């Protein structure tokens, strides 16, 4: 088998076998480093995906709003004297996005936009007997809004496909009022609007605040209750690429003159946390890779010293400098590759164990971790390259050895 291998391969394998203990130790070090990289990378990726999903599944990526009303001072003409006036911020009224149908059609044609939905939001009260609960009303068109927000996945009873006589309420609100699907509730608003609607579905966001305050009704019903005939308070947008939201939001604002918020701007701290997690992952990878490189380099430097006479004999019998160079680079590559394959397997075992111990009280996973095959490929390729780079200095040192000096030494 060895006779079919190139000369450098035969010598590289022989040298590695002769220093078996050194080879095993450095391969173990590389394997440990790669297993840490695989485990930490998969863990952070799973955590980021979970946080990202929890944030964006229930929030539009871009929200188009009407501009805020601004109080302006009245200047009184007189004898040239300047009057100092105190202007207090104006209380914001519920108002519609100007020409929202045109805005919706314009945004829907933009590249990268996947869903556009009109929404009416406002405050109201639910009255049942002597109970009176303040709630936040959200008027939606189910055919578009259910593509925007993953509300369907949180429905625990009934359905989210509401009509003009239906409503969706949170689990905590339903419990507080003692109602369930099919029951009727009376909705009232400060503008004098009233409506009696049937509970079509009950959702559970896993958040007590949202479960006790959020109510979804049909868009036209909300317009009537909130005295906003034909209007909407926002146009909400989702994109094919969520991380382009801020750029697209600025484009929409420049074209329409309306107030446009992106999820990146409204969740600045969350976005910074994601970036910090990614940066910490890269720092861990760098130092683990550096440690593995130093280990491989130190072993090969010792190998060059130990085998200087053998190298001198090889050079004296016609082995070229390039072959000696390739011999030690090959040792570094093999050490990195074999160590990375072992490390990827150990990292995979770590992930299996983590999935079995990191569980919630109900037995579900704390957060899902997917096994991306490319992560193992990248780890193997990266460790092999690190091995080659780490072997470069010892290889150059071996290639520069003078045969006569090496043999006498």
Report what the structure shows.
The protein is α+β, with helices and mostly antiparallel strands and 409 residues long. The chain is 54% helix and 17% strand. It has 14 helices and ten strands. It has helices at 7-18, 20-56, 100-108, 142-148, 171-177, 208-213, 219-225, 245-256, 263-266, 268-306, 308-316, 321-357, 373-399, 403-408; strands at 62-65, 113-128, 131-140, 155-158, 166-170, 184-188, 194-203, 214-218, 234-239, 259-262. It has a six-stranded mixed beta barrel with strand order 2-3-8-5-7-6, surrounded by four helices. A hairpin with a 2-residue loop joins strand 2 and strand 3 (131-140). Helix 1 (7-18) packs across helix 12, helix 2 (20-56) packs antiparallel against helix 10 and helix 2 runs antiparallel to helix 13. The relative contact order is 0.17. The model has no long low-confidence stretch (mean pLDDT 85).
